[in-house]
Please model this.
Amino acid sequence: MIREELDRRLAEVEEKLIGIERTRDNRIYLLCDAENVYSICQFLFDELALRFVISSGVDAEHCFEVLHHFSADACGCVVTVKAFIRDRAAPEIESITPLIPGAEWIEREMHDILGIHFKNHPNLQRLILHDDWPQGVYPLRKEVQL
Amino acid sequence: MSETVRKSVLAVGPFHPLQEEMEFFQLTVDGETVTDINVRLSYNHRGIEKLSETLQFDQIPFLVSRICGICSASHPLAYVQAVEEIAQVEVPERALYVRTIINELERIHSHLLWVGLAGHFIGYDTVFMWAWKYREPVLDLLEEITGNRNNYGNVKVGGCREDVPDELKPKILAELDVIEQKTEMLTKAVLDDPVLHARLKGVGILKKDDAVKFAVTGPTARGSGVDIDVRHDDTYAAYGALDWKVISQPEGDVFAKAVVRLLETFESIKMVREALRKLPKGPVAAEVKEIPPGEGCGHAEAPRGETFHYVRSDGGNRPVRHKVRAPSYVNVPSFKASCIGEHIADVTLTLAAVDPCYSCTERVAVVDGRRQVVHNYASLLQLSREKTARLRKEIGAPEMKLEDL
Model:
């Protein structure tokens, strides 16, 4: 898939997005609300056959962000789905693991260290934190200082 | 009396025999066959992402090069590429070539290391001795260029710290000739050996669609017919200017992964030669003042697959978020697809075939509840080697001796 074709196909999910950012020719960020993340990822993975790379959870000031990074290897493009979770008290987002088994670990990791709950995750047990780590302390949140 | 069904769980870990980090694999077994696999990890989590938020942009390459001793060129490279993307830095051409040379030398020694260990696990200690012997001069070359055998500390935002001195070129080229010749011999020995064919073919198959689902990268993906390679797909450093090809094999078994790594070693040797020949004159670093607010994704092809770094800056002198994904993070979970249905004797090898980071603390306990058998790491290794010996006998192949080398 060439870059122009990727751009054209990405326009198909435009109504589900808040915006599209482009920091470079081959770095695309699709901004969306948390509730649309599954359908956008499904489109990227199933329809466009992009490769799932990893996700980054970010503790931003007023919200949490979950970034699912995909790679369009045929044209060397990194497409990132950036989902905003506005409810800081009980952050929750749809899991993409039922769609992409390769996302199981990273979602468990974000659940551990940022306290984001992933709905419909098949196995949301602890991955990073030890079993006796206190409940409700999320080490990657900004309020936890080293 | 009700009958209870007892599942036999084979515990590998928490100190995994093959991996740098401590991991705990629980294999559910039915007799000799693995029926399910569960993993517990992060016994050795160092909090690098959190630590990174406390360091300045130019200190972080030293931190991330310590994520993995063997991939200590590719992690910092992926990181600086992400930061260079934020700051829109133009890296001098010579620096791009130096980065390529260091990274390819790293791949050569890493692949040779894997071949040696794979040989060790199946009882071919001869291969182990060979491969590690030929790997040594590569480390010496890296030491001469960067001052370190590993943890080179060579890249920085905007370029490189150390140059490849022109007077070192003849020595590198001479060493490469020797390494190429020895790797050729090693490759021939592997490809022509009927015992290795019998022992490695059809073992631990990762099918192409599973490779896609589990999002694997590097030789693990290329061994399953997914021909992705960041060096080619999203070309960086000087790879775009060099003549080389992406190696892939369709079979998905351990043999295919071995072939991919061996053939890649030749491509890397070719690349270092060409990069040395084309090495342009000029500075190896550009001046970088401040990192503006923004975000960047940097990725590089490490010996084990794609290393991915996401960096976000708020305009200060430290990143506000730095996400690191090492290739083993996606390669390891593919065991769920490649180990189930395999024999216990093959699991050690299948786990090793994705080349997770080695550096082993060996302690394995296998508990077979039904038969009350307890295996340790030594007996598991024994099982793997006995299978090789059995096959060798069936084929009628002679014993391989160190003197034959």
